């Protein structure tokens, strides 16, 4: 069980997070705080009773029927987030909490279209989130990358416009010793019916520009959403990917090509993809040699940040320290950071394992 010394071991593991939506860190209390500051009218009590107070909104987030039910809440709450400082505050909420959970390196998603569609300038969003990343490195020693996601329920033409905004703003360009502000592309939102192939052109353009590529796949959708992301989008990682177990041939390919899955156990339970964490194919992935990291997805909605996910996995699978070593090693090596940073993280892992031997 995840208690006492084992909990300390999990807490002290040097974690890399690869599947985290910054917008998914918008808690009910931060939503109300920003709405008040910005003079934003959240839905009225008559329209949506859950917006009566922080407490009623917290209660609403205790149960989601499925991914779409969650996404409806997720997009609505964003109305409260307006200024560059708001985006920085949202990013900072993530970095401070993740730091306390032992995250050393984070590759975080953001959804520009959920803001530009409300009239917020693209630069306001990116500059705010990037300010939080820079502050995290300076004040907390955490390294990070931003991953720009396309919303798959919107047409590819909207993704193309988003791509153009990032190019025009110079956010994909490395400048004078500074890395590019946006390191990679992602694909999220409603999965079933919105196939990865629709975004082929944007991903081809991203590959040409030297951007990293990942996409949500096999969260609710069948394994063809995973193979589609590999074949059409040339993804280096797959976000979620739990439906992979339905296709043994594809599983063998994922192992052979060393594609990292970014698994989010508490999210899968909250969105009813599985009944309990024990149904997430953690044991199967370890046995078959599928590389994966463990992540929090949308922690303000799914009951906890990364450490809660590590603990939930431990409670469900009772993994050995050797198995945790494999998981953390794979998350370090599957990160989109340079070898020097990976070596630092691997050495932190070594120290942690020695301390807890
Ligand atoms: N779990 C998830 N799946 C798809 N899109 C998302 N956007 C935020 N969280 C998501
Ligand atoms: Zn996600």
TrEMBL record:
Main location (coarse class): cytoplasm
Obligatory cofactor(s): Zn(2+)
GO biological process: adenine catabolic process; hypoxanthine salvage; nucleotide metabolic process; purine ribonucleoside monophosphate biosynthetic process
Domain Adenosine deaminase: 14-351
Keyword annotations of the record: Cytoplasm, Hydrolase, Metal-binding, Nucleotide metabolism, Nucleus, Zinc
E.C. designation(s): 3.5.4.2
Name of this chain's protein: Adenine deaminase
Source species: Epicoccum nigrum (Soil fungus)
